Predict the structure of ROK family protein.
Amino acid sequence: MSAGPEVSLGPGAAVLAVDVGGTDTKSALVDGSGVVREVLRRPTPRDAGRTGERVVDEAAAVAAELAARHPDVTPRALGLVVPGIVDDERGVGVWSENLGWRDAPFAEAASARLGLPVSLGHDVAAAGWAEYRLGAAAGYRDALVVTLGTGIAAAVLLDGRPYRGGGLAGEIGHARVADGPDCVCGGRGCLEAVASAAAIARRYTDASGIQVPGARDVLAAMEDGDAVARAVWDEALDALALGLSHVVALLAPQAIVLGGGLSHAGDTLLAPLAERLGALLTFHRRPALVPARLGGDAGVLGAALRARDVAPSAGGGA
Amino acid sequence: MSAGPEVSLGPGAAVLAVDVGGTDTKSALVDGSGVVREVLRRPTPRDAGRTGERVVDEAAAVAAELAARHPDVTPRALGLVVPGIVDDERGVGVWSENLGWRDAPFAEAASARLGLPVSLGHDVAAAGWAEYRLGAAAGYRDALVVTLGTGIAAAVLLDGRPYRGGGLAGEIGHARVADGPDCVCGGRGCLEAVASAAAIARRYTDASGIQVPGARDVLAAMEDGDAVARAVWDEALDALALGLSHVVALLAPQAIVLGGGLSHAGDTLLAPLAERLGALLTFHRRPALVPARLGGDAGVLGAALRARDVAPSAGGGA
């Protein structure tokens, strides 16, 4: 599950990293040589209206626990990444529908609590940054790192830098690619409503009357010859290809990295998607379509990279 | 026609600027206080297979002419912008279908000929940069400057910088927004095939049997109550709104500046386009839709800005 031992950040400050997810929170301690010493995974604390404060409590608890077990590593900064709309510059979690905070001053609160500089970032953006610096997008100057999970969103990496658009960039899941169905965002025919893992399962159930727990089951049915599953999957691929063709026309990325749950479909996804995307392009720069490399650890590694950016340069750590 | 006297680049090096268009070439002399002293407009030289060389000849001739008329201004650099695919970094005109060059080493050739540092750029990108620095997009950090003319293309300005994607960014005219018609690029249903000025005129003629010289005549017919003209214009607006909605989802620009011939339609374009775009958006950052301010001089002003970037800093000019 953990990519920790396989990936090194290289020499720099020792840092703490915390990636707050909708279900679980992952925390990591990175030493001065860039080795991830330990990754902890715990349920994300939830406390109606106070989840933001509990996240900071949890970061402090994890910091103490990791300090006790790794006394030779003294972290110099914390990278904290959270979902929703995030204002990196002010260090504020602007809004999370799922976790229920609004204008949560994470950076300030965590810094006061831990006595460390804190960099707050967005989970999808941080995961994308990690893939760009350490993973599947390394070596490409212009890239998109797309998360195909319950939702669909992307990190935009251009000319060596993340592009954030005030925290609202990368919402490719909410651009219209079909005449329907309705999307949770209030739109219609959004990419996410057709091609996310959740949408694929839901659309299969709607069309077949068969309840399935997830997109994986739809893929399994398709491989057993289920024509409804095939139609749902093909529509998802068409929608993804169309959405990505707009990205290619606008930004001409050299690579599009695909991560998130659906990307585990491997060549069942990549090969037909590349074919459909290719059919939509003419003179455009054709991006490499590549699977994400850092898996579920991309977010916490991105948090660690952020932490290093704010660590005092003198604090080389352990 | 000329925005010259109204726009100042501010203090800096005196420079020459040349904007090579498909029909005309504009050249300007900017003095050390940033005032555009003169703008010349001449037919773009054409010489089968040698147009690239003739462009450099023309730049040298214009430089001599301007020097004779403005002996008090000594330009320290040349900014040259050309259409097609341009490699800014190497200073090479990679390809122009319209003007017929391939791998033309403009920067090197012009520099040898004029004895000045030369910055080569792309015409649409340079016009966008001028609108971003001096025109309608000034004051917005993240913006798109769209040219709606014979073709449709955009300059992408993000976090204070132009994004070029290896010279292939901004090709929003070649993303699919409809089931048809065929596009010159080999694609189908491209934005440019539905909503460019040329497409609007062509589609009106196809549907009505009435020959028209341009989109302006289709708009005039619409205002006289012509239902075919109305339908063609509405389809163009729908296509533009859909294409721009993908841009908004991906980049969340604060402003989208509309220039090129079609933008002269003013509120006939802007008001219904804003309404249609608004209907496609939900939580997204809604961009200001604003008309370009620099008109046909945007390209040559962008060339002048590029020239200033390569002018020797000691050479403050006149």
